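thought: fold this chain, then report.
action: predict
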Amino acid sequence: MNGIDYLISDLSKKRLIGDSHADNFISRVIEQHQLDNLNMFFKNFVYNNQLNSASVPTEFSNYIHENSKLPDWADLSKIVLAQQAFTAIGPAFILSYFCKSLPECYACGNGAEILFKTGRLTKHTRRRVAQTAQFVLDVMSPGGLEPGGRGLATALKVRLMHASVRFYFLREVKSGNIEYDVVTTGYPINQEDLLGTMLAFSSVVIEGIEKLGLRVSKAEKEAILHLWKCIGFLIGIEDVECISDYTDAVRLWTAITDNQFKNTVEGSSLNNLLVDFLDEILIGKMLDDIVPIMMHWLMGKKITAILDVRTPKFYNPIAVISFFLGILLLKIESVGFFSRVFSHYVNMKLMIGLEKYIAEGEDTGIYIPPSLKRDWYMDSMRKSLFHIMKKRNG
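observation:
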């Protein structure tokens, strides 16, 4: 049995495993009554401040420094290629993530139940979604995984955040405050869910990018997967090196979703919150239906039905135009140009909105490196649209 076959056969066991290394660290911190330090750490790292900041507890800085080394099998040339590809297609990557990958994670019913019951997304939707976009930007921006890079610190922060969620969630379950069955639903933020999330950031996103009419070469697909395998290692995913190539990734995602896709109140609720947030970012009644249109386009009938994604309102003129040009006519190669230009317009509106967004009394706008803003022509929608016309034809 090769590596991927072993991993697929072992998925049921993976649902009962967390991340003992990070979990033990968080347990020690909490047992030593360092809750203020824990809260201070996460508050100061909302925007990924420097690790040597005086406000960051030394114990946390030491933990991150000790655990921020890329795996021995990391290929720096592939990481660079993945980040170069992101520079070229980054806005489409973000759009595919929000309108395909993240919703498909919510369609995994058991994982959605955990997310919903922890309240991390339901109580602070705007901030959590903005932080997720920041995670992508930090690890995929050029230099993000070099020593001292933002991506390394972000990955380790995510790992500790997962561990803290597991600790408090299980404590509430034990106290009877949350009804949850670990045996039937799985350990919170377990190894299978982590593997699925890693694939959502890589192979699933790529599938959506290609459906948006952009070309991703085989080498770029393998490079993006490799980068996210390295991130998976950093956030505590076991056996991630068993995924040898892009074909393996597609097989593993299919195996996970075959078992986990199901309609749940929690999954639908999480996705509705996401749609509301993205609608708010895009702003304007003419764009109200763009998000569900994109979800229908990128995910198809089966998954949008699982998530109860609303059907676009056809009295909205732009919804009618978008539907016929973007969905029905996408199958005709000659109009691929229109789908690329239209989707890129939405991409840029979303990126600009995320950068500037402020909500819940806190600045939740994301940090986009100046080099990426320049390459994406974020200061001029006209230049940006002209740029996409010339590149990455599908």
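thought: worth noting. Residues 1-394 form one domain.
final: tokens above.
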